[in-house]
Structure formats: C-alpha cells, structure tokens
C-alpha cells in the first residue's frame, strides 16, 4: 500500500494516522465478513449495534446505545477543536443473496423474508469502525471531537428522524453542537475510487398512497355505480402530464405509479381504488409543485367522475434532498485529491435517495455525502470497454451486489479519516 502512503500528496497528518491501517486491516475484514453474513432488517439491527458499541468502547469512545431504536453514537473527545460527525447506516434489505460469496448471507427475518446487505451498509459500518480505531490510535496527531453515528433504518427513511426524536439533539448539545457532518455510500464504481459532488446529489423521494372512492354495483348496472376503476385509470393517464407539461425542461422529476389496485371480480364494480406512486426531485420548488399537481389532478378527476367522497392522500417513505454544501465539499474534495490523487473524481448526480441529510439539517450543520467504489476495477474496465456497465455490473439492492473486500474497505476507511482530518488535523 506504499503508493497510498506516499506523502507526496502533502497531507502528512492523514498519512501518519493511516499508517495504522496495516495493524487493523485483518480485524476489519473479519468484522466485515461476519456482518455481511449476519444482516438485519431496518429497525432490527440489534446484533450489529451491540458489536458496534463494543468496538467503540474498545477504541475509548463514550458510547450512547439505543438511540432511536438500535442507533449507536460513539464520542471520541480529544482536546480543543472542531466537532466532526461521521455517519454510517446499519440496515439490510429483504433480498435473497445470490452472490455465491463464501460469506454470503443465509439469514431469514422473523417474518420469513430473506435478508441481505444488498445496499452495502456493512461496508459503511466497517469503514467507520476502522476510522474510529485509527483516529483513537493516533490521538497525538489531531485535536477536537469525533462523533461516530451508526444509524438504523435508512432503507425505511425513518432511522435518522428516529434518532433525532430520541435524544440525539441532547447528546449533540452536550458537545456544544457539531461543525460538520459527513457520510459515504459504496456504489457500483471501480473500487479504490472516491467521488464528491457539490449541490443536489441525491434526489428527494416521496411515496404517496391515494384512495379514490366510487359507488359499487353489479357489473351489468353501471348506471347505479361510480366506477373507481375508470376513475383510477384516468388519474394514471393524466398524471403523465405533470412531468411532461408542468416541470420546466431544465429541471428533473420522475413520477411513477408503481401500484394500482381495485376490485375482486369481473362482474362487480368495486367501491374504491388505491394507487401508490413515487416521486423523485432535486429541488424543493419542483418537489412541492409536483406533489401539488398530483393532488389537484386527483381531486379534479374525482369531481369529474362524481365521486361520492373526497380522496384520501397518505405520504410515506419520504426522503429529503441530499444537497451537498459547496464549502464543505470543496474542502473534502481537495483533501481527497491530495491523498487519493487521480482516484478522486466527481460523483455523478444519483437518482437514489438517503435520509442522512435529516441529521445535519436538524442539528444545524453543513454536510457533504460522497461515493466510494465497490466494483472490482478489472471487471469494471471490461464492462466499460464492452459498453455494458448497466447490464454487467450488479448495482445496490440487487441480489448479486458484492463489493470486493479490497481495496473497498481500505478506501472507505481512508476517505473517512482524510475527510475528518480536514477539520480535526489542525
Ligand atoms: Zn439502499
Ligand atoms: Zn444504502
């Protein structure tokens, strides 16, 4: 790893702290394989949280457990200086693993669903524990306070808010607030690379369940009915005009009706229909315009059909926009370029969503969120050459998503240390 440790980049502090990586690497790899084999669904991350808390205590952190369910906060105080929050999410997904890895998950949840770390949150947890261990070992190289936050339930969009509603603000107030919040995600990019982006980086997401009401009747007597099937169909078609006709060409939005359900039998007109839809946007103005247009269209179609009752709207799985602070991103980006050289680049805008930004938004701190690669670089290059990246490289949430152990874990650990030291390194 001498090429990575070369102080040519100029960041001597990061280089010195990361010299410790050789002594913790094998332990981190073992931890990762165990965590990958024992994934837990959102809100059920108890085994993971217990192992995390034990490691944080070993590193000398003050540890707060059970914050918002299974959330864990480790605080490493090391004299005067800024306070930096690093966040990792811990939950897995109900996916049947098909990676063929020797440490593949065979876990089954209480409800019988298979469980897999298909989003790579096991990478995030392992790298953050690695960063804490290295910072603790090299406490003479930096000063300030490091907060390592392990969040449950990212995949259900409510883990960050759960921690905020259950004592996290008090813990942070006790430290005098935080100066910056940082987080990362492993993505289908070449392992060993890191990517930063300023401004809107991950989309805001909103899911909506809409129930429209009709009047049920015999299928042979439509005159006695208000048919919610026809009403729902008109809504689906009319909703296609929102992005096409109401969103400016330079703005981006996605509106997908993913589910539509009504009725039980061919000759019964049902009395209601339920639509579920998902919206992705990259700014608050577009977001509220799209959500407003949906409600307007649904109410108008109900009126046009003579619906006997107002429609019901229920928003769920709501993710905030991830809008990276320009100054924070510039600082992290230049630290990355100094350390990683040409392995540091720009992250393309992602249509995925995250609830991380709920934390810094509520705690009053600027933030940035970056990507690290997890795909074998040779495999990636071959797919790129063949023009088959989308087809051949398994993406997050797929049953074949299998980040290569190295250099993924090294890079994720290095990225967290390098970024934190951009504030704590003096
Ligand atoms: Zn995910
Ligand atoms: Zn994820």
How does this model look, in words?
- With 426 residues, the chain is α/β, with parallel strands linked by helices.
- The protein has 14 helices and 16 strands.
- An 8-stranded mixed sheet has the order 1-2-4-3-5-16-6-15. Strands 10-12-8-13 form a 4-stranded antiparallel sheet, with helices on one face. Strands 7-14 form a two-stranded antiparallel ribbon.
- Helix 3 (21-37) runs antiparallel to helix 5.
- The radius of gyration is 24 Å and the shape is elongated.
- The chain binds zinc ion (2 copies).
- One zinc ion binds at residues 119, 155, 396-397.
In short:
Helix content is 39%, strand content 24%. The protein is α/β, with parallel strands linked by helices and 426 residues long.
Brief descriptors of the model:
disordered N terminus, 8-stranded mixed β-sheet, 4-stranded antiparallel β-sheet, 426 residues, 14 helices, binds zinc ion
Helix and strand succession?
A: HHHHEEEHEHHEEEEEHEEEHEEHEHEHHH
How many distinct beta strands?
Answer: 16
Terminal-residue CA separation: 25 Å
Structural class: alpha/beta
Tell me the fraction of residues in β-strands, as a range.
15-25%
Weakly predicted, low-confidence segments: 1-10
Helix content: 25-40%
Total number of helices: 14
Task: Give the biggest beta sheet.
Answer: 8 strands, mixed
